Amino acid sequence: MPGAIPLIDTPAAMRQAVGAARAAGRRIGFVPTMGALHAGHVSLVERAARECDDVAVSIFVNPTQFGPGEDFARYPRTLAADLALLAPHGVRWVYAPEAAAVYPPADATRIVVEGPARGFEGAIRPGHFSGVATVVCRLLLAVPADVAYFGAKDWQQTLVVRRMVRDLGLPISIVVCPTVREADGLAMSSRNAYLSAAERARATALNAALERAAAAWEAGADVAAIEAAMREPLLAAGVAIDYATVVDAESLASPTAGRSAVALVAGRLGTTRLIDNRALPPRSDGDG
Ligand code: PAF
Hints:
Layout: E1 7-8, H1 11-23, E2 28-33, H2 39-51, E3 54-59, H3 79-86, E4 93-95, H4 99-102, H5 121-124, H6 128-142, E5 147-151, H7 155-168, E6 173-177, H8 197-202, H9 204-218, H10 223-236, E7 240-248, E8 261-269, E9 272-280
Parallel strand pairs: 1-4, 2-3, 2-5, 3-4, 5-6
Antiparallel strand pairs: 7-8, 8-9
Helix pairs in contact: 6-7, 9-10
The site of pantoate has 10 residues, from strand 2 and helix 6.
């Protein structure tokens, strides 16, 4: 039986623990999360455990990345289950601060990333990426690890975090790990828990749209044709589409010849908003 994982709730205590381990020559991996952990998070923890001596996981539902009317209040908070899930995976510390430890009273500082934060999630969720960048920066200051691990499911988020780390010169490496999927292709997400049984069945349409995109991309289709192919399964499943398209994997601009691309999809099933993506290899003819 693995022992209980020490729970730390202040940045000072967390910095002290990680600092002491690093001073002893240990390599530290960090997995930032909002809890409601699933197999996707476990895959990040396992990768961190393979590549590092010690692993820290943060569990913090970050208020600043939710807009008005979004799901901050109902976001699942499942700390006991999260700790039980992490227990067999060799996690050394769980950092679970209260909001006031991350955002002290009268806090007035935010990080704004431009470039990759524009468009898509940044356009639909104004302020979201500022909240993400702000909390990730504060988490990285509290957990001064060697490497931090993020899931590729939030593709645009990984671009924003990488850019912030680069621009601010933060002394940490960022590793992006593959999306983990259910047997029927649905990307694992804490928000899948919101879906009714009927919505859950229809949610496979997002992955179907990405399969269509990959096939059309490989066949040399242009962006308009790929978008049309992606929309078919989404509309058939009653997904209210926010976007379904193919863009350059780094700049999120129109794809160009010889560069990697990514198919992005986002939509709503009832009150649940889901996003997913699929990396696409470079083509000699860009967007055709
Ligand atoms: O991807 C998430 O779970 C969150 O956006 C993150 C990176 C933990 C910041 O709150």
